[in-house]
């Protein structure tokens, strides 16, 4: 059919085409722009021409309709009859596909892939052809470039045998093959090149479109990286690690893919073994509730979780699996890298074992015993960790309680030993001091006009007082000092306390006091209390050689047993002495209350001041605590028990009563002490009768009595000590007051308020005051004493 005599419709004669269907078909075909689609008459002349054909070949519809397709072939192809052979083949086989150079209207060539379909009537008569042409020039160029690259690639990677390195064209067809690929996959070059790489996938993966998705991912993301089952030539499967990268030429044109495959079946087997082991592990330990048992991967991520772990740490499995185990550590531990060090130790040494604080889901802390074991495959590669955690908070608390009990026992034993040592020497030592101090006081009264002698006596008395303080501090620390607790109001004594403390402070140190009026009264021995506060103030002063501030403040505290180391319970007044000094080093803190421990120069302190504070607090039923930081001062806090009654005003003897003199029986087994005590009593104007022991004292009382007062030592050699004698006197002569004197005695601690006690070494003023209180008694007692005297005088001599 010629263009000049073709039907107006453009359809071959004798073919009836529905106009509506023809219109729709033409619209669909014309919408295709990347393929040239046109109909041909049986002789090869163009009947229709779509937009894609016009775009690809450069001709408008009017320029090609009725013209033979040979116009698109190169002269070389026309010379050998290529167009006619193509038509004949399509007519014979109904379909033919060919590639080759084709010519555009402007004379340029392009590499075309053409498919020619024979179109037949219902009776099988050939009525024309449908021809589809696609421009594949870019693809062909890419393939040529890829072929060149493959040659280089083959030289570079041909010797690699551990990795299958394969080049694919843009469609996924294998274009080259290295020795490693042959070894892993089993195909020789001639058996695999030109085949699609999907041949390596399992049938299931091919049906699911996995090969195409791999190429799409590589092209979209720039890389495809995955593991999965692959198939060898002999049908054997292996677990492969696969990486596919898109390849571009120098002009950034996509030319194919580089595919690297490694057989990691051994690794997979190890992982599966680990998974199987984990299943068994889960079965075995899922019922354990006392231990948190779980697995970590090599990076420390939780891989599984047992019931015990949920019970101890509070997380359900779906809340914690997949999270890093460092979540169980405190913020401080995470900051210093403790979790990573634990894994490193387990990796290097095979095992990590420790105790420490761990954090539950709700943020609460518990003391944990932790074991981490490294888990390795047969080849030695690390595949994870097994971690076992146990909550041992109760055990630790019990251990701390036991340790505290041991410390308290040791402290008690130390105090007992010190008490025995002190008790063994205190009596004799104080008797020596009594002689020295008493004689010095007596000499002072007779050497009033001799300044040099008075200065010598000052030194003697000062040394005696210092010796007395040393013994007193030791007795306080060892709780052997006899205390006389009474209700005391700190607020009422604020002024006197301020004067006492200020006298020991230089002007460079400011003293601030805060003793509220609503403070509870405390039950303390006021003398020992003032000495303890003075010792704390002097200690603070010595910590501030360049000046500073000392704050003395108190507050009411009701303790429930958890606030202090000794677990005090009840109502206490907390009296704190805080300074702005240099602070106390941590290594010294545990020793600061030890007797004779001091960091001061030899002539600056004895090391007994804080020991006295400690002993006073303990013996008073309270406690002393210390808080200090280097460079930031120290704070000592005395917890003193609340008194059960309010303080009462003390009636002092009147001056007239203080001047009263009497007849006194002195009982003392130490001749030197007896001599000085008798001279001191005589110096005060009393008449003195001396006895050398308890039994002689009773005999003197019976034979030479009555007496206005009996002054006796407590600890004496012989069958009867001073306390036993005093009790017998109370029965035989209840009107005769007894004053006991001692430097130390176990018995004195048990006397309580049974008899008044005068502490050795005593001074004339102390002696006078104590005697005056006993002699200043109601008149009825004096009358009874006079009647007893008269009865004695009238008794016939034996």
Task: Describe the structure in your own words.
The chain starts with 18 loop residues before the first helix and ends with a helix. Helices cover 41% and strands 23% of the residues. The strands form six sheets. A five-stranded antiparallel beta sheet has the order 6-5-9-8-7, sandwiched between helices. It has a five-stranded mixed beta sheet with strand order 15-17-18-20-19. It is built from 27 helices and 25 strands. The protein has 798 residues and is α+β, with helices and mostly antiparallel strands.
What keywords describe this structure?
798 residues, alpha+beta, five-stranded antiparallel β-sheet, five-stranded mixed β-sheet, 27 helices, 23% strand, disordered N terminus
Summarize the biggest pleated sheet: 5 strands, antiparallel
Query: What's the number of extended β-strand segments?
Result: 25
Radius of gyration: 56 Å
Mean pLDDT: 82
Helix percent band: 40-55%
Q: What shape does the CA trace take? A: rod-shaped
Record the SSE blueprint:
Elements: H1 19-31, E1 36-40, H2 51-57, H3 61-64, H4 75-79, H5 82-93, E2 95-103, E3 109-120, E4 126-135, H6 137-157, E5 164-168, E6 174-177, H7 179-185, H8 189-192, H9 203-207, H10 210-221, E7 224-231, E8 237-248, E9 254-263, H11 265-285, E10 292-296, H12 307-313, H13 317-320, H14 331-335, H15 338-349, E11 351-359, E12 365-376, E13 382-391, H16 393-446, H17 451-477, E14 486-488, H18 494-502, E15 509-514, E16 522-524, H19 526-542, E17 548-560, E18 569-579, H20 609-619, E19 623-628, E20 634-641, H21 655-658, E21 663-667, H22 671-683, E22 687-691, H23 694-704, E23 709-713, H24 722-732, E24 738-742, H25 746-751, E25 757-759, H26 764-775, H27 779-794
Helix pairs in contact: 16-17, 16-22, 17-20, 19-20, 23-24
């Amino acid at each position: 059919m010629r263009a000049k005599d073709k039907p107006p419709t453009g359809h071959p004669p004798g073919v009836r085409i529905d106009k509506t269907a023809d219109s729709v078909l033409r619209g669909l075909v014309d919408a295709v722009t990347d393929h040239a689609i046109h109909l041909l008459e049986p002789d090869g002349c163009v009947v229709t021409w779509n937009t894609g054909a016009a775009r690809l070949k450069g001709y408008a519809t009017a320029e090609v309709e009725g013209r033979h397709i040979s116009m698109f072939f190169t002269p070389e192809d026309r010379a050998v009859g290529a167009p006619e052979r193509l038509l004949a083949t399509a007519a014979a086989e109904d379909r033919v596909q060919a590639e080759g150079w084709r010519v555009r209207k402007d004379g340029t060539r392009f590499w075309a892939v053409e498919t020619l379909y024979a179109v037949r009537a219902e009776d099988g008569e050939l009525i024309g052809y449908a021809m589809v042409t696609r421009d594949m020039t870019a693809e062909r160029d890419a393939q040529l470039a890829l072929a060149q690259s493959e040659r280089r690639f083959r030289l570079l990677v041909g010797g690699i045998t551990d990795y299958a390195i394969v080049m694919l064209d843009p469609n996924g067809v294998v274009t080259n093959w290295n020795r490693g690929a042959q070894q892993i996959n089993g195909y020789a070059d001639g058996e695999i090149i030109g085949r699609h790489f999907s041949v390596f996938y399992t049938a299931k993966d091919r049906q699911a479109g996995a090969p195409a998705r791999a190429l799409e991912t590589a092209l979209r993301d720039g890389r495809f990286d995955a593991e999965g089952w692959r198939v060898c030539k002999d049908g054997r499967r292996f677990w492969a690690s696969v990486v596919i990268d898109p390849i571009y030429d120098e002009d950034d044109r996509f030319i194919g893919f580089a595919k690297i495959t490694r057989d990691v079946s051994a690794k997979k087997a190890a992982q599966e073994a680990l998974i199987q082991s984990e299943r068994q592990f889960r079965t075995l330990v899922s019922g354990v509730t006392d231990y948190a048992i779980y697995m970590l991967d090599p990076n420390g991520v939780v891989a599984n979780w047992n019931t015990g772990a949920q019970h101890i740490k509070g997380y359900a499995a779906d809340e914690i699996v997949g999270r890093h185990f460092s979540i169980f550590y405190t913020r401080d531990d995470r900051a210093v890298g403790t979790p990573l060090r634990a894994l490193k130790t387990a990796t290097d040494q095979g095992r990590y074992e420790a105790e420490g604080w761990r954090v539950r889901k709700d943020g609460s802390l518990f003391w944990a015993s932790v074991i981490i074991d490294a888990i390795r495959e047969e080849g030695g590669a690390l595949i994870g960790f097994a971690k076992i955690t146990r909550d041992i908070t109760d055990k630790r608390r019990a251990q701390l309680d036991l340790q505290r009990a041991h410390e308290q026992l040791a402290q008690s034993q130390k105090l007992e030993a010190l008490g025995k040592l002190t008790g063994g020497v205190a009596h004799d030592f104080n008797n020596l001091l009594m002689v020295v101090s008493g004689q010095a006081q007596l000499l002072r009264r007779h050497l009033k006009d001799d300044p040099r002698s008075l200065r010598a006596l000052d030194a003697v008395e000062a040394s005696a007082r210092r010796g007395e303080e040393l013994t007193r501090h030791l007795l306080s620390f060892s709780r052997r000092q006899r205390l006389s607790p009474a209700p005391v109001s700190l607020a009422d004594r604020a002024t006197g306390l301020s004067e006492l403390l200020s006298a020991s402070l230089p002007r460079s140190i400011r003293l601030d006091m805060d003793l509220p009026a609503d403070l509870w009264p405390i039950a303390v021995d006021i003398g020992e209390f003032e000495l303890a506060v003075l010792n704390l103030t002097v200690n603070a002063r010595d910590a501030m050689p360049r000046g500073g501030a000392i704050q003395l403040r108190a507050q009411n505290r009701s303790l429930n047993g958890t606030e202090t180391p000794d677990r005090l319970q009840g109502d206490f007044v907390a009296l704190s002495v805080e300074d702005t000094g240099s602070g106390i080093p941590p290594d010294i803190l545990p020793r600061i209350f030890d007797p004779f421990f001091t960091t001061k120069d030899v002539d600056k302190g004895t090391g007994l001041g804080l020991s006295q504070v400690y002993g006073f607090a303990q013996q008073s039923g309270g406690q002393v605590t210390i808080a200090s930081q280097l460079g930031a001062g120290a704070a000592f806090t005395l917890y003193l028990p609340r008194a059960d009654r309010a303080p009462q005003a003390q009636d002092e003897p009147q001056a007239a009563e203080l001047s009263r003199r009497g007849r006194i029986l002195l009982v003392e087994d130490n001749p030197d002490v007896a001599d000085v005590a008798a001279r001191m009593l005589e110096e005060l104007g009393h008449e003195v009768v001396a006895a050398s022991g308890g039994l002689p004292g009773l005999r003197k009382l019976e034979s030479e009595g009555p007496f206005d007062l009996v002054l006796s030592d407590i600890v004496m050699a012989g069958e009867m000590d001073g306390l036993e004698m005093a009790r017998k006197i109370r029965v035989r002569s209840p009107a005769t007051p007894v004053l006991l004197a001692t430097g130390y005695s176990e018995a004195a601690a048990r006397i309580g308020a049974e008899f008044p006690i005068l502490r050795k070494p005593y001074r004339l003023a102390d002696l006078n005051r104590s005697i005056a209180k006993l002699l200043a008694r109601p008149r009825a007692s004096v009358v009874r004493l006079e009647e007893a005297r008269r009865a004695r005088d009238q008794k016939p001599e034996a």
